[in-house]
Amino acid sequence: MRPNPLRLGVNIDHVATIRNARGGDHPDPVRAAELVASVGGDGITAHLREDRRHIRDADLKRIQEATDLPLNLEMAATEEMLEIALKHMPHAACIVPEKREERTTEGGLDAAGQHNTLAPIVWKLRDNGIRVSLFIEADERQLDAALRLGVPVVEFHTGEYAHAHLEGDSERLSRELKRIADMSALAAKNGIEPHAGHGLTYENVQPIAAIPQLAELNIGHYLVGEAVFVGLEQAVRHMRELMDDAR
Length: 247
Ligand SMILES: CC(=O)[C@@H](O)[C@H](O)COP(=O)(O)O
Ligand SMILES: NCC(=O)COP(=O)(O)O
What we know:
The protein is α/β, with parallel strands linked by helices. It has helices at 13-22, 29-38, 57-66, 79-88, 115-127, 140-149, 159-166, 170-189, 205-209, 221-230, 232-246, and strands at residues 7-11, 43-47, 71-75, 92-95, 131-136, 153-157, 193-197, 216-219. It is 49% helix and 16% strand. It is globular, with a radius of gyration of 17 Å. It is an enzyme of class 2 (transferase).
């Protein structure tokens, strides 16, 4: 069986982090989105955090106007974010868990424990034609909950996998990889399109990219960091090559 094509969504949040460090307008995440489009990235991901620590409201419209690439808006499950999503109508909305004090998204969304909170938000987005995705751990209980919510897409949080790789813990790494592979197969079998992302790098991306059912990887922090040394275009191109080789 030939695996599905694997899309690369580039998360440009941390271009905005650098911009915000000085309060001006440089570097502009919109310019990053244009560069991603020019080198064949498949989509732009942007997380409008409740505390606006990187992407800001005004960036969304500017990103949408600057490129034709589909925008995947990462958002917390709140009324405020729902309203913003409905105003901007991104191609996709990925519901993520959010804690103000966290350094980054530390785990997956508890879709199983929050069905009643998530359901009206998921349905409202879906009824307005936005492709809804849930950012969850690769775990059967969470996948079941995603099925019950009727979402077309889940994105598996690869943070634990990335930590295991960083720490050189090969046993944990194999375990994490297996659960992402198993849950990707189960999602696809049940008609949900599996995506993955968080903490992916040149060094750890290939085993994930080789999972045949995965349709999209969303990668940001590492690419923006690497862009400091080689430029964003080259960083995206190289990531794309590694993903294609792994396929
Ligand atoms: C949900 C997720 O994983 C992304 O939004 C990404 O990591 C954004 O960066 P921060 O988590 O650092 O805000
Ligand atoms: N959903 C994951 C994402 O968009 C990118 O995460 P990271 O590569 O910035 O860790």
